[in-house]
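Risk mitigation, structural track. In case the binding assays with DP6 fail to produce interpretable data, a predicted complex structure has been prepared as a fallback.
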Amino acid sequence: MNYRASWQSPSNIALVKYWGKHGIQLPRNPSLSFTLARCLTKMTVEVNVDAALPGLTVMYDGWPRPAFEAKILTFFDLIGDRFPWLRGSHVHIDSVNTFPHGAGIASSASAMSALALCLMDIRDQIGGPNSKPGGEWWQEVSVVARLGSGSACRSVYPGAAIWGVADGIAGSHDAYAIPWSDRIDPLYRDFRDTILIVSGAEKAVSSTAGHALMNDLAYAVTRYAEARRHLGVLADAMSRADALDIFIAVCESEALQLHALMMSGPAPFILMEPGTVAIIKEVWRYRRDTGIPVCFTLDAGPNVHLLYPDANAGEVMGWVRDVLVRHCADGQYIEDHVGSGPQRLIG
Ligand code: DP6
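Fallback model:
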């Protein structure tokens, strides 16, 4: 028997960062993210449950990618009890990202959430636990996505998500993310994220190695406490329209703390490039001179995410084109915004 499912799922950008994990992909601190609209993985998974030769093939952008197979097989081992038919099946995965190659954008959140969605969809087709897409279904997708890549568990919800037990956030959990879009002011529901591609090089340090560094870091305990505090402050600031200054202060502090942590270990590394620092200084200057509430956040890499209200898009994009683009590799940037979450694809 053959089963097939196709989903698209977005990337997300953390405002309060997940950095440090334990056990089986459990976070050391809660995180909060915006779900993106345009940085997507589109994936089709085909499962032949009575294949003569069980196994896995992975295609990306139309080409075989055996290099991705080891990570996916490790993931299949972790989720084997939920999807027992995976063991005797042949699985074929075909995916493509909507964001450009060489843009230095991590695809694990969009790819692993898309894979979780396809597997859950196929489980429903096979007739596994009798769950139809509802709140619990999405929660289980989030659990499965987390086992593939921690940050992927936040990609399954529209708007915004919180992952990890957080003080005062009812229902928050380390095993899965919870939707947070209904709790934020409409100002944030169509926030812009213009991703300035300072370097398109592959990640210099894998997330796994980065998280592992936290295990030996003297500042780790303080960092986890600070992240928990930031999450409370940010969740409160985003529930209203009059606290953009607090939103900005927390987002930028989180971004710089993430990079400061990477610079502080026994084997430190610097993921910012000169262009990253130049853009940060331009953001501070522009905000001071114009009063426009634009701020930045950073991932574990050199690219800068510019965050700002949709109402300011015209003037901010003019400034991006006039001033910031010169710091971007080949002038590349991606105009993204807060999005509506994953979608089932026909075919
Ligand atoms: C800096 O989710 O990529 O983007 O769980 O090992 O797959 P693994 O790590 P990953 O780490 C993301 C780190 C981050 C911050 C964040 O997204 O919260």
